[in-house]
Give the backbone structure.
Amino acid sequence: MDTYKMFINGELVDAIGGKTMPVVDPGTGETFAQVPCGDERDVELAVAAARAAFDSGVWSEMSPAQRAQIVIRFADLIEAASGQITVADSRSMGGTAGWVGGGLWVAANSMRNLAWYAANKFVWEEDVPVSGSLYAFGSNLIRREPIGVCAAIAPWNVPYMMALWKMAHALVTGNTVVLKPASTTPLSALMMAALASQAGIPKGVLNVITGPGGSLGEALCLHPKVDKVSLTGSSEVGKRIMSLAAGTLKQVSLELGGKSANIVLDDADLDVAVDGAIAGNFQNCGQVCISGSRVLVARSLYPEFLDRLERRIHDVKVGYQLMPDTKMGPLASARQFEAVRKYVEIGKAEGARLLCGGEPARVPGFDHGCYFQPTVFVDVRSDMRVAREEIFGPILVVLPFDGDDEAVAIANDSDYGLAGAVWSRDPQRARSVANRVRTGTMWINDVAVLSDFSPFGGYKSSGLGREFGDEGLKAYTQTKVIYTSNEGAANRGTFKSVLPYPQNPAFGFNQPTKLIVGPKSISNLNNELRLLGARRAVIITDPGVRAAGIVDTVRRAGGDRIVGVFDGVVPDPTYECADAAIDYCREVGADSLVSLGGGSSIDCAKLTLVALSSTGSAIENMGLMRQDKPLLPHIAIPTTHGTGSEVTLGAVITNSQLHRKFFVADVHLIPRVAILDPTLVTGLPKSVTIGTGLDALTHAIEGLVTPGANPITSATGMQAVRLIAEHLPRVVADGQDLEARQGMLVASTLAGITLGPGLGVAHAFAHTVGTLFGVHHGTGCGIGLVQAMRFNREHATKALAQVAGALGVDTRGMNDLEAADAATAAVEALMRRIGAPMKLTDLGLQREQVMARIGEIIGGTMSDLNCGSNPRPVNDPNAVAALVAAAV
């Protein structure tokens, strides 16, 4: 049985009293871990450590940028350990592994975003341009400072996410923290805290204590050296926290319960609204504060809505949370299970009609688990307890309404006001309804979507204060005003008082890159820089490209608009590599970049652009979709034909300490111009030609089969496959074949457009073996591609069948499955024809060497971001193990 320790003053410790308490798997009813059971003495020790750390200034007096680097490193470490954390929390609280793992990734990215925001966007000091006072002639400066010691009390329903959110808000604003996770689900908090020292968080800044919620929570709220209390929990507990904190006038942030209304107007798309109603309430078995547990349906749609809801809800499979096909796991505890059973009986007694569910779910082999069927009550009135009280379980209530005004009235007839949604084909009408619902967050035609840069919190009994966005960070600071008076005569206004003086199936497509294609097209570079207004461009490249003489060719083409060359790009560029590029570009005053090389050079240039357009180091500028203005001009000149990075919005950067790749992405990162000149590619070695060609093929095929593919990306993907099938064997046979080189450059660019909606498990595999064994990315993609096509065979059959045709296979007389298998065989044949490695052992790796690290390969592959867009869910370790074994 696993045992864990608390984290106090930078050390892992047992409870002072020596007691422990069990952690129970609600899917089996069995104890699987023991954690310390602390008491008031442990609270005293943790608060003393936090107080000493804050007062010393070791954290609070760091610059926001310094804190951001450490917190982002902490987030990277947490994400790197996400596999173990996911399993531990899934077992302790019953959420499915996919839901927990995805939520953990989201929360780690939120931590990065908040750190970046605190360092780059949050206004720590600002001048007030006018005073608004007849007597204040000097200057007013508003300064925001950390509060001090923050006690954070996290709930049991989403422990990993809540712990990260609370730590992030407090840490990035310079506070010290004592975190108390829920007594039933403390594992993720303890596991994350154990990484704090490695991230560089000083002793005493972060402390995690475990034990009974009531006694530890009360001790924290009453402690005179705690300055703020943050709680996510029930409304009743929130009221108790406020009462306790009032004695010492602590600041309090409360994110409490909800009974959110999903409003389906009479013009709604019923397919979307029904799925939204289910997704909005049955995630995590309904144990989410923002669950849309009340569905309000226009009376004209009511019968059809119920019919579709009853049929669709059977697709929610209840099962053990770690099973790959489970969509809804058990309730988090036997106590919550009994509460749900009680509410079913209350609903029946009140006269609500049970549409489906209402009973414990039977899961073979898990007789002692807390499983419950998805339950729907209909013909519900707003005065019924099942419509008014937060149940926190898989119970949905449906109420009819007549007209928008009544819908708003029913939605507002609640003690809660945390979230809600409106479903309508008329955005203006939906907005009008959303504006009138008294709740903190309203979604239109979606549910459960939160932004790191928008405030989140509730009205009424759903809480006080906000988290996230500028408001969320301000809640962890206190405001100081510094007034500076002008020097001169003593007749200050203040003196005069005492002294005498004489004042969906929708999609978006954005491809802004201008393409210039053809032999010697590099001659256009100077003019393209001129058109972009660039006068001080820097070439970002690698030593190999310079040694090949290509840099000299490009520099001549750019003329006097090129002011320097940074040739320090390394394969799979790291934060350190990007920092060196950033420093060089700042030193020479670059106003634009020309990336020259493969994906590594283009990706390094992208991150460099982000930093040049803001401030800070490489790691601080890693983030997703957060640029609020165009970046400096960027012209991409690929010297390989594989990455497609010249037309994509993302870049992959390696954390060299963790041996893990992370992403920066934004539409503003797409290069303005790409020059595809085959004369610059003729010297590409055969092995690189093969590897990059297979990278492009993998982009095209994975982009074609991803569920998010659209008609435009499908068209580009199919043409990319055709071009690669035709031209890759030619360039392998004759590297000087300009027509084939140009065909491959165009194919790579088309494949780059194709990958926009997402990639898949082949790329996840390639990223992992690349970091673990140094396998060239394109080579890893090729080895993984064949296995990925087999892995996805029954989940992307039609798309794979079309790929067969693009590869030149005559599919007449074949069904789609046969054609899909033929596509896989055609890729294998192409790889053999060009002499590509088919297995990892073909690269000189020993099978024993690879299999010794199969756990790391499986974990890295499954946790890679690209698996989120794979057509087949990548949530079964055994299936991934088979894929990996076949690639060895």
